[in-house]
Specification:
- The chain is of the alpha+beta class and 863 residues long.
- The protein has 27 helices and 42 strands.
- A seven-stranded mixed β-sheet has the order 2-1-11-10-9-8-5. A seven-stranded mixed β-sheet has the order 27-22-32-31-30-29-28.
- Strand 24 and strand 25 form a beta hairpin.
- Helix 2 crosses helix 3, helix 9 packs across helix 10 and helix 12 packs across helix 13.
- The N and C termini lie far apart (110 Å).
Length: 863
């Protein structure tokens, strides 16, 4: 009796009572247990016994598969299995029409038999109701839509030759061919259970879309698009579920797209990011199983962020990667069970029409000629737009909420989908579309930089990534692709960096090197075709003679190059429209002047140098976010700090006011900071903070008049006061008056405006003022500018005018903040070491502020 009991408990009852929920069963196997001497009446025989008993009229074909593959003993005696089987009548229909072209069982090859049988089997026992549950450290109920089958990747290894992709890693095998697995992971099956559908709010239309138009009842269970017509047949060693049709293993997304004659163009783009990888483990295993096999086995791997590879077969780091691996059978973003990917794939007809007739697609054609010559980075932008790593979030009911891999709106509507071509692969859903979804990369102001052969350096700069919060992303690409903001992107072409006229090298005067007291430096940026990266050659430079000497170094340090070129990029981005001639402030708070086809920065205005706009791209016309201007040189931002402009001995009219600014005593510096602080190229205005400002400088005559009238008490008189408290009070009073001449927002002579602007002096009392400034707010200045007339009205309703003396108005300055003082880095040639000997390539620019400086005819007062 115990032997009988142990047999039952050890196999069927242990299996079935452990898995079947909702049945009232015994919790232990004791001698008085009612089934001690007999098996339950509802418990069938083994899986094989059940199928064989019904074989003559129902499952004879399936039983032949089991027998031919030597699996009878397993399914008769041991194991815990789940089988999705097809009836003889289903096989009869299968022989009438199938992708293999077989018309009888006898025509099936051994490999085909394995695919039918092993793909229908899961190596665990599951009731249909429990198939959608899984455990990964936490229990997830109704969340699964995939399970691994018993079909191994080694069950079918084709020899491939003519159909191999093209590419540097494939061409070697074109003539001799190779044994190639389309992927080296085993094959899962995809199912739609009532629990999964309810949990994920899958609508009837959603299901019909992905299942070839099938309709389902509330309790229906589908494996791919094949309905379970009889489920939960209980056997001693597992469960049988009967399908309405024969189940063949679908291919993965990449393979379906590759073998579909309507999607050859999209497939070729995907294959750019694929390569053959030698599979040592499966080669050895296959040798053991088939000693007669002496060749090597490869698998088709994709360079991808999810489920893919990061390096090419020769060990090189991949410069570009797909968002996920469309060729990996077990592709998952976390767990294999809960979701699959999706791809929206335009047909060849649609792709060609886009290339020839769409405004943006036509740019690609003009630039590259055909799809085959579109470079990898551009192809990647296109592919990423059409790939999503979740089917659950890519069903028709979610189309209106979809965003692409870069989080931009993906405007898919149901009418875009060619429903009869939908395909549920083992790793995702492929939607064939009658529309191309143009990447935001193409239509934004970044587009002309990405798609232009002459902007490789700026493209490299924009596409560099930052690491923030553990996430790596291309900040500037995301920034310039924002369609909720308009930009004017002024992009210097590679022509400048390689030499403005194609012969003479052109240089970027480095601010840190410019601030050196020893050897200053100039940089020439250039695109290294071998490494596909930007490098910089460093030359000696003299800021007194403005001459460039010999090259002294080459910098490949990516962090240095990003630091400098991102700062340069910031000075070439205008937030908003460039609506015509005038002055504009860039993202870097640099001030530029636009006049027709020419642009000037602060330094350009100083030396009367004009940068030409070679071409304009009106991206807004294509649904983008502004205008891109290709320049023949970068904008020359000011290299002069506000301090150096005011201290310039050639600017005699600035001297008296500069002395007042520069001679703020340090005695009370904790409470009353000095105006200037040592930082940047030489000194910077202490209270400037990554913004743009206007500095109004009273002429020497105006300063002397204010001293004579007692409005200003000079430092000589203040410093002579013996009472420290009185001296502090007078110091505070004069510093407040001096700071009243510094205004937030850069304003130029020539602008038309009338408004109030904030000064840098804080109001500390409740006294009424002309502009009604409240306590603890900054005093204001009223500005009225029209043509060459520029008037400032103060808080005491007195006025001053900008003096239009040549060289004394519209002067642009720039104050830098460096990570360290320039003297704390070695010179560009490695000389000039101090106690701190950081290399020049380690130098970083933290931030900057710009100011426009005007000479005025009166001192500004707020009391």
């Amino acid at each position: 009796m115990k032997n009988k009991l142990n047999k039952i408990c050890g196999s069927a009852i242990k299996l079935l009572f452990g898995l079947t929920v909702g049945m009232t069963l015994f919790t232990s196997c004791e001698e008085e247990y009612q089934y001690a001497n007999e098996e339950p009446a509802w418990l069938g025989g083994s899986i094989y016994e059940y199928l064989n008993d019904h074989g003559k009229d129902k499952f004879s074909t399936y039983v032949r598969l089991i027998d031919d593959l030597g699996y009878k003993e397993v399914l008769n005696l041991t194991g815990s299995k789940t089988l999705f089987v097809a009836t003889d009548s289903a096989f009869t229909e299968f022989y009438k029409n199938n992708p293999w072209g077989v018309t009888s069982y006898e025509q099936l090859t051994q490999a085909q038999k394995k695919q039918i049988f092993y793909y229908s089997m899961i190596n665990n026992a599951y009731l249909l109701e429990r198939l959608s549950n899984y455990y990964d450290g936490n229990f997830h109920e109704g969340s699964a839509m995939r399970r691994m089958t018993a079909l191994s990747a080694l069950d079918s290894i084709p020899f491939v030759k003519e159909t191999l992709p093209s590419g540097v890693y494939w061409d070697h095998y074109k003539e001799k061919g190779m044994y190639l697995m389309k992927d080296n992971t085993d094959l899962p099956l995809v199912f739609f259970s009532p629990q999964f559908i309810e949990r994920n709010a899958v609508t009837s239309e959603d299901f019909s879309f992905v299942s070839g138009g099938n309709t389902r009842g509330a309790k229906d269970f589908y494996v791919f698009n094949k309905k379970v017509v009889q489920g939960d047949i209980v056997c001693k060693n597992g469960y049988i579920h009967v399908l309405e049709e024969v189940l063949l293993p679908p291919v993965n997304m990449a393979e379906y797209i590759a073998t579909n004659p309507k999607t050859t163009i999209f497939s070729k783009l995907l294959d750019r990011f694929s390569a053959p990888y030698y599979d040592n483990g499966n080669t050895k295993l296959y040798h053991e199983l088939h000693p007669e096999f002496t060749d090597s086995i490869f698998y088709k791997g994709y360079l991808a962020n999810i489920g893919g590879l990061s390096s090419t077969p020769d060990g090189k780091q991949a410069p570009y990667k797909l968002p996920f691996n469309p060729g990996r059978n077990t592709l998952s973003n976390g767990t294999i069970y809960a979701d699959i990917a999706s791809m929206f794939v335009p047909t060849d007809e649609v792709m060609n029409n886009y290339f020839n007739n769409d405004p943006t697609g036509s740019l690609l054609k003009i630039r590259y000629g055909d799809w085959d010559h579109v470079p990898d980075d551009v192809a990647l932008s296109f592919l990423r737009r059409h790939m999503r790593n979740s089917l659950v979030e890519s069903l028709p009911s979610r189309f209106s909420k979809m965003v692409d891999e870069q989080n931009y709106r993906l405007p898919v509507v149901k009418e875009d989908i060619i429903k009869e071509e939908n395909y549920t692969a083992v790793n995702g859903e492929v939607y064939l579309t009658n529309r191309v979804y143009t990447p935001v990369d193409f239509i934004s102001v970044y587009g002309p930089v990405l798609l232009n052969e002459s902007t490789k350096i700026m493209n490299w700069v924009i596409s560099r990534t930052v690491l923030e919060g553990g996430v790596e992303f291309a900040f500037y690409k995301l920034y310039l692709n924002s369609l909720v903001v308009n930009y004017g992107l002024l992009a210097p072409t590679d022509k400048f960096f390689s030499g403005g006229d194609g012969v003479t090298p052109a240089y970027y005067i480095d601010p840190v090197a410019y601030g050196q007291t020893g050897t200053q430096g100039a940089l020439k940026f250039w695109f290294n075709e071998q490494t596909q990266a930007v490098n910089a050659t460093v030359y000696s430079y003299s800021k007194t003679t403005h001459t460039v000497g010999d090259s002294v170094n080459i910098i490949t340090n990516v962090d240095f190059l990003k630091d400098r070129l991102w700062k340069l990029l910031d000075s070439h981005i205008v937030v908003g429209d460039i609506s015509g001639d005038g002055y504009y402030v860039t993202k870097a708070n640099d001030i530029i002047k636009v006049s027709g086809d020419y642009v000037q920065g602060g330094n350009d205005m100083l030396v009367d140098h004009k940068i030409h706009v070679d071409k304009r791209f009106f991206q807004k016309d294509a649904g983008g976010n502004g205008t891109t201007y290709l320049l023949n040189a970068p904008i020359g931002t000011s290299l002069n700090s506000a301090y150096s402009v005011l201290a310039d001995t050639l600017k005699e009219e600035f001297s008296d006011f500069f002395d007042l600014l520069n001679e703020v005593p340090s005695e009370f510096s904790k409470e009353i900071p000095q105006i200037f602080v040592t930082q940047g190229v030489d000194k910077r205005v202490r209270f400037f903070n990554a913004y743009n400002y206007t500095i109004y400088v009273p002429s020497n005559e105006a300063v002397q008049r204010a001293i004579a009238e007692g409005i200003i008490k000079p430092w000589s008189q203040i410093n002579a006061i013996s009472d420290a408290q009185l001296r502090k009070a007078e110091t505070r009073k004069l510093v407040s008056l001096l700071r009243y001449h510094f205004q937030d927002k850069a304003i130029f002579v020539g602008q038309s405006l009338n408004g109030e602007y904030q000064s840098s002096t804080l109001k500390t009392d409740n006294d009424p003022t002309h502009w009604g400034t409240q306590k603890n707010k900054y005093y204001k200045l009223g500005i009225n500018s029209e043509g060459n007339s520029f008037t400032i009205t103060t808080e005491v309703n007195k006025t001053a005018r900008v003096l239009l003396r040549p060289g004394y108005y519209n002067i642009v300055s720039k104050d830098y903040v460096f990570a360290k003082l320039p003297t704390e880095y070695k010179n560009v040639d490695g000389s000039g070491a101090t106690t701190v000997t950081s290399l020049f390539a380690d130098s970083r620019i933290s931030t900057s502020s710009s100011a426009v400086i005007h000479l005025i005819d009166n001192v500004l007062t707020f009391k």
